[in-house]
Amino acid sequence: MKKFAFTLAEVLITLGIIGIVAAMTLPSLITRNQNKAL
């Protein structure tokens, strides 16, 4: 059980990184889509 695929800490860290990247990229994508609509 020591060599488990993902420990809870690794999962939380990766989810945090994904969340930060998504928070940085989503606003620009939303504004880009709004500009296309106009």
Automatic annotation (TrEMBL):
- UniProt feature coiled coil, ranges: none
Provide an example Pfam family for this protein. N_methyl
Its name, as the record gives it, is: Prepilin-type N-terminal cleavage/methylation domain-containing protein
Q: Where are the transmembrane segments?
A: none
* Database matches in NCBIfam families: IV_pilin_GFxxxE (TIGR02532)
The record's listing under SUPFAM superfamilies reads: Pili subunits (SSF54523)
